[in-house]
């Protein structure tokens, strides 16, 4: 799945969704469970993965999105 994200110019929204502020969500199903992994694009080429979680509701939990935003900011500050 990660290879799909790295190599595809235009992603299928079934697997990848833009959330906000440069943060994307990779959707993965495994063992009957839905998982979400947040990532950003760095220089348009490198995929940087952040926190992930098992999705239990239709809407992305706000606290998970806030955590991803914080990690994104820390990533760019440390570059």
UniProtKB/TrEMBL annotation:
This is Type II toxin-antitoxin system RelE/ParE family toxin. It comes from the Bacteria. InterPro entries: HigB-like (IPR009241). Pfam families: Gp49.
